[in-house]
Amino acid sequence: MTLDLRTVSAMLAASALLMSVVLCVGIRTRRSDGFLKWNLGLGVLAMGWLLCTARGWLPEVVTMAAAEALLLTGLCLQLAAVTEFGHQRAPRSLWLLPGPLVFCALLLVLRNPAALTAVTSLACAATLLSTTTAVRHLSGGGAPRRMLALACDAAAVILLARAAVAALLPPSYADLPIVRAIEPTALIGLFITSAAASIGFLLLHRERVETGLQRLASYDPLTATYNRIAFLSLAEGQVARARRSGEPCALLVVNPDQLSHVNENLGRKAGNQVLRELAAVLRGALRLNDLIGRYGDEVVLVLLPNTTLPGALEVAERLRAMVCVSRVGGVAPAVTVSIGVAPCDPRPAGALHMAIAQAETALGSAQRNGRNRVAGPPVPARAWGSAEVSHPAAARARTA
Fold this sequence. Notes:
By secondary structure, the protein is an alpha+beta fold. The chain contains 16 helices and five strands.
């Protein structure tokens, strides 16, 4: 059965519009994630395919030039969408200018339909290859990113083949049934790859949303540290690794001394600002593999892997001093912290909760003895002179 170009074009246009509606239903996203441009690109592609049905009713060169320009514009919009998805700015010239420029150039310079098809196919293929490059620079993505890149590469191959046929096929063969079927077949191939690319883009958005939800489930929104559940889960994993490796670890319980006073006299907003800035100071002074999480309304826990008790005490003293000079929250009098320190022996069952209880006891001792201080269990004399103090912050504190 011979493929009719008008019928195929009408079916592809209707399918593209339907796919656009499906994507609108399937994605709830921000304007800056490129979804609107991708969906608009689908709409422009549908208009280009729909314009193909007007061949024979309008001058062929004008119809073809407009359809090819719309095809290029739709692909440029999708390139801009991928660029925005990667949190980069997509200049308007990237998607506003190529289509109209190509349309004007085709009408003024090329009036041969075969040459017109070859040139625009090459331009569209170059746009798709640029989209593939942008996709490969996206972070994460996994299978959806590979699917999107593969679809763009496949569409580029189809367009390059279309350009080669248009440029190399003698005009005397144009009326052969097999030759007349090439254009509808190429359009169907382009639609299939466009649908696959749209599904890949949809899956990329879904993955980003799920990652955001996982982050919301793991992080405290005020302090940008782990929440209680996430901290305990990750800390249990750290303790288990310490049990296997035999490395020491220690725990800090940090509590701002004047936070209740700030909340009562300056309001909850000022108290939240104190917690936010306090967490920022603590994060900036710790290693990347140190765990920090909000354990209660005013309590922050810090787990220090590969750190002995002497090292943990020096880290705690350094953190206390940093908070004193940082004037977190900008309130007066300046907020200070009391810190309870405890070693975390990973060998017994429930080691983490035992260390938390011991550190909380030490914190209570620091608060009873005047606040703005560090308290912990006694340290054996030999430990202070040993090489076991392994936390870099502790080493810096000792040399200060």
